Amino acid sequence: MSCTLNISDIGILPYEEALLLQRNTHQTVVDGRNSPTPSPFHLFLLEHDPAVITLSKRPTAGEHLLATPEQLTKAGIEICRTDRGGDITYHGLGQLVGYPICDLNELSLRIHGYMRFLEQCIIDVLAEFNICGVRDECATGVWVDGCKICAMGVRVSKWVSMHGFALNVTTNLDHFDLIVPCGLVGRSVTSMQKILGNACPPMETVKRVVSEKFSEAIALQAQVPKEPHQ
């Protein structure tokens, strides 16, 4: 089976349209398992516009929305319910969102291992720009000096992943004041721009490095002996 990662740079897309694209691709991956030429690994790279705050199915997620309807309207931010894991988060221009649609059977990963896989990919991306990203034992995602730079939330159905990561490149961090990011009280967010200032790379450069690091990681992980999940 091919271990090639099919990368699609979508540009800018509303959240609901991207969600439909994910669902359709997810079904294609599941259906393709019995195909002579399956395509198990996809990565969509994009920014969301209009800006959106997404709420997971977690019962307490709505409690972490701090903004009034009037504030949301003024900021031009929509609210969308989603089926990913996690809590509440924000997506907008300047934030690189990545949606890997991958057959985890072909990567020999369960959910915990897949989350660590995603974190390591982003840590490796940041290292290319001399940013030291780290894991936090108490919270999923990638952190820099105690501030979250990349949020993560996934859904796995039939052992094929959906959703993924949101890396703050030049994101408007003020919009995070409208929520309790990821439901983590007292934890701040940051961005590549905030850390690097004028040395912050353009979005296209970050996309290129993300594409390279994910392709390398997929190719390496796909070589691990398969152990099908039940």
Précis, in short:
The protein has a 7-stranded mixed beta sheet.
Describe this structure in words.
About 30% of the residues lie in helices and about 30% in strands. The protein has about 230 residues and is an alpha+beta fold. It has one domain (about 5-220): Bira Bifunctional Protein, Domain 2 (BirA Bifunctional Protein, domain 2, 2-Layer Sandwich), CATH 3.30.930.10. A 7-stranded mixed β-sheet has the order 1-2-6-10-9-8-7. Strands 4-3-5 form a 3-stranded mixed β-sheet. A hairpin with a 2-residue loop joins strand 7 (about 135) and strand 8.
Radius of gyration: 17 Å
Helical proportion, percent range: 25-40%
> Mind telling me which CATH architecture this is?
2-Layer Sandwich
- The number of helical elements comes to 6
User: Shape from CA axes?
Assistant: globular
Can you tell me the CATH topology? Answer: BirA Bifunctional Protein, domain 2
Read across the widest sheet, the strand sequence of neighbours is 1-2-6-10-9-8-7
Quote the distance from N terminus to C terminus.
Answer: 20 Å
Structural domain tally: 1
Please summarize the sheet with the most strands.
Answer: 7 strands, mixed
Task: Name some characteristics of this structure.
7-stranded mixed β-sheet, alpha+beta, 10 strands, BirA Bifunctional Protein, domain 2
Write the layout of secondary structure elements.
Layout: E1 6-13, H1 15-31, E2 41-48, E3 51-55, H2 69-75, E4 77-81, E5 88-91, E6 95-102, H3 104-107, H4 111-127, E7 134-136, E8 139-144, E9 147-157, E10 160-168, H5 192-196, H6 203-221
Parallel strand pairs: 1-2, 3-4
Antiparallel strand pairs: 2-6, 3-5, 6-10, 7-8, 8-9, 9-10
